[in-house]
């Protein structure tokens, strides 16, 4: 009889890492190498850390409940995002309101070091015996900007006020990010691990790029991140280098050409992976925007990164939809000669045909075949690549092919 932990170790500790060729089935011969003893040890250590942090979070709350004589944790208030505007100027952090909100943010940092999503952090600090978030499987998480957003605000708050509580909480959060990073350089959606698609390396909602932006800024120790210690800078740079290696290995190669990325990639094989029923294995145009944007911000990029950027930009140019527009809920595109170029959210690997999914796990080439509920409830097309392609035009002058 295997425990949940031993099963996870058995599944993940045998990982191999290889450049991704989505149009070639994964075989023993096509993989660069099988894991060494050192690789297996790294995964075993990683999974043990995940389990230890989960236990620490659970024990902390359990002890509070015992002290209060409370059987079940109460829940904080739910909100779509965090309950307050996250983009603030320096003076806000010095104001009574800014300090009040930052105190609430501090109170919702988990013992493991992260934050939850969809939890209102504008009303009142977390109370003893209260859960650290409203959704159990997302406590803590990197999903929907959680944890990365709080760390960004802590850095700004420290710069504005010099309050050591902010830099201490930031240090704990930075350690959490680094602890959550897979040995192959990617990040899961949630950490400690919860299983299922949440354990995939996640590009969805700019998760990977958001974490890499923070690491990049810490490594440089500039502006609001100037408080970073030399040790933190080094740790951030090492983590970032591993992440960049993962980014290059997960850029999908189809028909012999580099393309873009999937919304999720399997933590074991690095292949594009399925998430929710309507989020199929595919190339994803919207999620890849954040990564392409970040890569162009790197100073002195390697030749491999330069090639990756050119290839992703070329894929966007080759697959743009012109003269059309889409309104959420519509089954068909409308003609509009003045509309900016747009892209489907998902594309079939190998053919670059737009893909659309539904809650019953069905996959379609036509949006009209998707249920009205999913047409209304999901962004199937995007214009977001236009901005990053404009940036690419400027970037390419400095780094021509």
Task: Characterise this structure.
41% of the residues are buried. This protein has twelve helices and twelve strands. The model is unreliable at 1-34 (pLDDT under 50). β9 and β10 form a beta hairpin. It is α+β, with helices and mostly antiparallel strands. The radius of gyration is 22 Å and the shape is globular. α1 runs antiparallel to α2 (37-68). The strands form five sheets. A four-stranded antiparallel beta sheet has the order 5-9-10-11.
Largest sheet: 4 strands, antiparallel
Mean pLDDT: 92
Radius of gyration: 22 Å
Structural class by secondary-structure content: alpha+beta
- Quickly name the level 1 CATH class of the largest domain: Mainly Alpha
Distance between the termini: 56 Å
Q: What is the third-level CATH name, the topology of the largest domain?
A: Glycosyltransferase
Write down the secondary-structure element order. Answer: HHHHHHEHHEEEEHHEEEEEEHEH
Number of strands: 12
Number of helices: 12
Determine the strand fraction and express it as a percent band: 5-15%
Percentage of residues assigned to helices: 40-55%
Structural domain count: 2
- The backbone outline, from C-alpha atoms, is globular
Strand arrangement, largest sheet? 5-9-10-11
Known CATH architecture of the largest domain: Alpha/alpha barrel
Uncertain stretches of 5 or more adjacent residues: 1-34
